[in-house]
Design a protein that fits this description.
This protein is an all-alpha fold. It contains 4 helices and no strands. The longest helix is centred in the middle third of the chain and has 28 residues.
């Protein structure tokens, strides 16, 4: 996957605007997927929503909106 991400970054920095935009959109999808995986891992390991929010540089409310808050694993909100 790392090679794929590097290729996308290179393409996103390219001179062809449409190819660059497509690459940037795919990068965003990949980053969002990676963030969701890490949020799940963090919760499984017992990290609080506050800790996750701080790591992402957003509010606890933003984490809930983006990643499902209470719905993730049916867990509570702390």
């Amino acid at each position: 996957m790392n090679g794929e991400l590097v290729a996308l970054v290179t393409e996103a920095e390219g001179d062809d605007p449409l190819r660059a935009l497509r690459a940037a959109a795919e990068l965003r999808r990949q980053v969002d997927r990676l963030a969701a995986v890490q949020v799940r891992r963090a919760r499984v390991q017992g990290l609080s929503w506050v800790q996750i929010a701080e790591a992402l540089g957003v509010s606890k409310q933003a984490v809930h909106k983006r990643f499902g808050g209470r719905r993730l694993f049916g867990g509570g909100c702390d």
